[in-house]
Amino acid sequence: MDYRKPSFSFFSFFTIILCSNIPQISAVEYPINVWPKPTTFFWPNPQAILLAGNFTISAPEHRYLTPAVDRYLRQVLMEHHLPLVNPPLNLKSAPPLTALVITVADVNSPLTHGVNESYSLAVPSSGENAILTAQTVWGAMRGLETFSQLVYSSPSSVACGLYISDVPLFMHRGIMLDTSRNYYGVKDLLRLVKAMSMNKLNVFHWHITDSHSFPVVLPSEPELARKGAYGESMKYTAADVRNVVEFGMEYGVRVVPEIDMPAHTGSWAEAYPEIVTCANMFWWPAESDWPNRLAAEPGTGQLNPLHPKTYQVVKNVVHDVATMFPDQLYHAGADEVVPNCWKVDPSIQTFLSKNGTLSQILEIFVNTTLPYITSLNRTVVYWEDVLLDAEIKVSPSLLPPENVILQTWNNGPNNTKKIVDSGYRVIVSSSDFYYLDCGHGDFVGNNSKYNQPPGTPQGDGDSWCGPFKTWQTIYNYDITYGLNEAESKLVLGGEVALWSEQADSTVMDPRIWPRASAMAEALWSGNRDETGKSRYAEATDRLNEWRYRMVTRGIYAEPIQPLWCVKNPGMCNTVH
Amino acid sequence: MGYTILSFPLPLSVVSLFIFCFSIPGISAVRYPINVWPKPTTFLWTHPQAILLSPNFTISNPYHRYLTTAANRYLRQVLTEHHQPLFKPPLNLTSAPPLQFLIITITDLTSPLTHGVDESYALTIPSSGSTNATLSAHTAWGAMRGLETFSQLVYSKPAIVASGLYISDVPLFMHRGIVLDTSRNYYPVEDLLRLVKAVSMNKLNVFHWHITDSHSFPLVLPSEPELAEKGAYGEEMKYTADDVNRVVEFGMEYGVRIVPEIDMPAHTGSWAEAHPEIVTCANMFWWPAEAKWADRFASEPGTGQLNPLSPKIYEVVKNVVKDVATMFPDSFYHAGGDEIIPNCWKVDPSVQTFLSMNGTLSQILEMFVNSTLPYITSLNRTVVYWEDVLLDPIIKVSPSILPPENVILQTWNKGPNNTKRVVASGYRVIVSSSDFYYLDCGHGGFLGNDSQYDQPPGTDPGNGGSWCEPFKTWQTIYNYDITYGLSETESKLVLGGEVALWSEQADSTVMDSRIWPRASAMGEALWSGNRDETGKKRYAEATNRLNEWRYRMVSRGIGAEPIQPLWCMKNPGMCNTVQPFVS
């Protein structure tokens, strides 16, 4: 594991107060907890004090920190959260806490990959000011979230006599949501960002378009959404995108756009049929073998790299998207280029007949688009396929590691290793561990699999990535498994992914939460206790409480156990 | 297949005969531009058209305490729903006068809502509003089914209705229900009302309310208030008598029976909070280290079984039964009877003494059944037990103390095999096979400290650790023939089925999406079947209809989960597979 050390030092102030007895990271079960568990949580005598009715938070003025401070101030004064298990905390008779004072070393650091998110928080037991120190405003936001989770009850009380020093293990901690297979309202996206921030996740990877619909309205290419969106009410306008991006800034969540190409572009054909091969064909014709499919799932269509018009459209798209999404990362897709979809096109047939290869065609595409994207000061993220696909892939020489990050989704740690061994930075989204849609069966129609005689084994239910990934499966996955320390440094972090064939607004919250919370803790402070032992058992009750708190905050996280288990700690365990 | 054939052919009215007798085909496989879920038995619509619904549209019906409320509700709905189907039905709006009236006639206004009540109806919507639409039914409950059908034929703004059609409809199975467990996790009354509403939309007719279990006892009983006071999860997580009355009355207005289940003698750990002396093995760790599975205290965390040898339990049980029977008027009373675990009784000294005198655990259960079943039946109730009471390999009772006229068994293990064993023993059966009808399966195990999810990458994750894996897709549910392998006579004992949502990993946050639209799949299979007129399974054809119906449920406030990308509906057939399944 590549534990990144916090770069700041303890205040001498706290050193004086606390240095008499600093243990290791404690495995003690505290009466109130923070999710994800902080790196260091020092609380020798758990107590609580009232929050003054005129409690205030002072912070340096900042375009995004200031609204966050206002929001947290309202929240701590009004949330009045009642934990499932009343924290056995003595309420001190000390004067109530009247202020949280935030100091930020560098208020100019932008929200970008690798920004310093560390913070330290001290809540004294005397009623003296609580202190939150951070290098950046984004770290201060993480600290504010921590502070908010320490406040509970009515009237508001806050855990006191504690010191927290916190810093994430991995810099990139995200959620991917597919808004093409099914549409999500902007309100859903804002609620997602809000919940991510609660969990100290920092990247919303927005898989905006795919073969099924093209919901984003682009100023230079308005026809794409006009014809490719599911309907008038199922689009994201420029104002919608700005709303999401600005909201993200106020919550310390980066919004990374993905316009998947050259495959997964059937929806582009509604506006530009001439640039898309195999559009609107039946995905896997009868009598044909799987290698002769036209797409890996219903919804065919790939951009034709041999058609000059493709690049006009693509450049407009990239330009608009880069304008609308300020983040430095731009996800350009490149997964699942399917041979037969290109092979049905006459121009490609001609190219192949002159001894050209499909990989060369992809190289033409990458060579023509990647430099343009990087020219806009973007680091490009591709799915691993561009390097690792068995049939259609590009030479690493076309993918400069300084400009390209690869996102892995196949073969668990094996592909992670292949990528870092090739010198690339990697974002881990292993479908064996991090795909949230798995385990709900197959969505294709007319599937006789589900019409077998009773008694036929049902196997894993025919979801291609079944079974369902439980929160523990996600929590326990070590994304640097099998890597040495140098290799581990190339692992930027991970993203759980919700592909939306069988998901939309109705299930977004429970499919994502609290399973994404499990990844959030694993990538923030790890999935092991100070002895190196997996801490999933100890995490269970904490996650139950946290899930409940998310629900009271309006996030419909699904339950992981009967409430009885929370009230009877340990009794729902297995010891076998 | 031995579908229950109903002897009641609804007489077509003279008018409809006149209109339609020229060309009556079999049940049509034609795809209609607008559909009703579950698909009606007979739907004749030779020239699909639509007419406006007059703004003064009214529904006339004979006065009936519940039907009148329902008719008013449907009137409001058809005038204000303005449903826009995902894909605009290609229907010509005729210039005929708008529809002014739906006239409901009922043969027997006094039939109560009970098992086997006649739910058939016939609906005629003429192609011109100068003639009234007519809905005829034997009972008020059949009329409610017809009103639901009518409401699904209305769409758009201004409201228009499919016209020139005749529907004659009758369910294949009389018992079509949903089990919801409100003990493992609590559901507020609003959720239960929304559930009943959705149950009614799908022409399901039974909400089987698994109210209590070892985890909590949320039901406040006038004679035994301590049970909820100490056994509920909290003050705000109880069902009061008023709450129950609200659910029951709401059910009547929606034509949905509420069948209560107070599970006993097992699954009663929560009773021990108030009455520790009557519960064996309460609050013990469910499966101790070093113990074999056979020596567990419960099949899942949450131990406790009523002690049939303690005289005190019969006082408590009779109070409970009496109160529950008073609060729930339905003629079915579900008394549980599942998963009695040997070791939970064996740790009790009185049980040990009994066993040491050559008594058996089955005899102890027989005592319990003998002391409680006659009391429940004396309150004019038919008792439903889980199959275990007859089929459990270790602890079961002799069929001689389970009179088939008073007892119905609900099957949940071993698919059609146990259904057959139950009917072969002469009992009526309700099918809830966990292989097909358990809605909670496929979300992994809920146990804490479970190392199966901490294996090295590359380890085969197998089926994911849910005991009834995998997730039951809507197709799995739709395709299950609940009379599979039975003779026609045996099939007659199959009353119907219930999908079940056990709540270890479910509560309000996921109730709608776990249940719908998968319960809709059972709704159609048990109403008009899962085959077309040629006998072929119609799951492929049902997909688009279910997509539309799921969307309509969502717009009606039921958070049903999507089954496909919206793209699939826009491109009919394109999301199919045409490859044969190879196992």
TrEMBL record, chain A:
Keyword Glycoprotein: yes
One GO cellular component term: membrane
Signal peptide: 1-27
GO process terms (BP): carbohydrate metabolic process; glycosaminoglycan metabolic process
Protein name per the record: Beta-hexosaminidase
Keyword Glycoprotein: yes
Ranges for domain Beta-hexosaminidase eukaryotic type N-terminal: 34-150
Alphabetical list of SUPFAM superfamilies matching this protein: (Trans)glycosidases (SSF51445), beta-N-acetylhexosaminidase-like domain (SSF55545)
Cited Gene3D superfamilies: Chitobiase/beta-hexosaminidase domain 2-like, Glycosidases
Catalyzed reactions per annotation: Hydrolysis of terminal non-reducing N-acetyl-D-hexosamine residues in N-acetyl-beta-D-hexosaminides
Gene Ontology molecular function terms on file: beta-N-acetylhexosaminidase activity
Glycoside hydrolase family 20 catalytic domain span: 170-526
TrEMBL record, chain B:
Glycoside hydrolase family 20 catalytic domain segment(s): 173-529
Family matches, as Pfam families: Glyco_hydro_20, Glycohydro_20b2
GO MF annotation: an example: beta-N-acetylhexosaminidase activity
Domain Beta-hexosaminidase eukaryotic type N-terminal positions: 36-153
A GO CC annotation given for this chain: membrane
Keywords: Glycoprotein, Glycosidase, Hydrolase, Signal
Superkingdom, natural source: Eukaryota
EC number(s) from the headed UniProt entry: 3.2.1.52
Membrane-spanning parts: none
Residue numbers annotated as active site: E339 (proton donor)
Enzyme class: hydrolase
Gene3D superfamilies referenced in this protein's UniProt entry, alphabetically: Chitobiase/beta-hexosaminidase domain 2-like, Glycosidases
Biological process annotations from GO: carbohydrate metabolic process; glycosaminoglycan metabolic process
Signal as UniProt keyword: yes
Catalyzed reactions per annotation: Hydrolysis of terminal non-reducing N-acetyl-D-hexosamine residues in N-acetyl-beta-D-hexosaminides
Family from the record: Belongs to the glycosyl hydrolase 20 family.
Full protein name: Beta-hexosaminidase
Taxonomic placement: Eukaryota, Viridiplantae, Streptophyta, Embryophyta, Tracheophyta
